[in-house]
């Protein structure tokens, strides 16, 4: 196999992969846009991260009582960061 042929095959494969990835990304975007038109889905997508953050914080209290202090700190800070991020995102979206 010559170097030119190998180069051409590699370029064709790259173009094919790029086309497939872009097509898949567009399908995902279209699907999400279609799904987010429904009110229950929007409500769940906004509530679920907050519930996760609260769940992590409450789990950290239980873990701390069972003397798992290191993982309790991880749960507490992960939950706190999750809640803070969601509040910031909600503020930014509401401000627009």
Task: List its traits.
elongated, 96 residues, mainly alpha, 91% helix
Walk me through this protein's architecture:
With 96 residues, this protein is mostly helical. Helices cover 91% and strands 0% of the residues. The protein contains 3 helices and no strands. It has helices at residues 3-35, 39-65, 69-95. The longest helix is centred in the first third of the chain and has 33 residues, at 3-35. The relative contact order is 0.07.
Strand content: under 5%
What would the average pLDDT be, to the nearest integer? 88
Q: What structural category characterises the helix and strand content?
A: mainly alpha
**Series of secondary-structure elements, N-terminal to C-terminal:** HHH
Helix fraction, binned, reads over 70%
Which helices and strands, and how do they pair?
Blueprint: H1 3-35, H2 39-65, H3 69-95
Helix pairs in contact: 2-3
Can you summarize this structure?
The chain has 96 residues and is mostly helical.
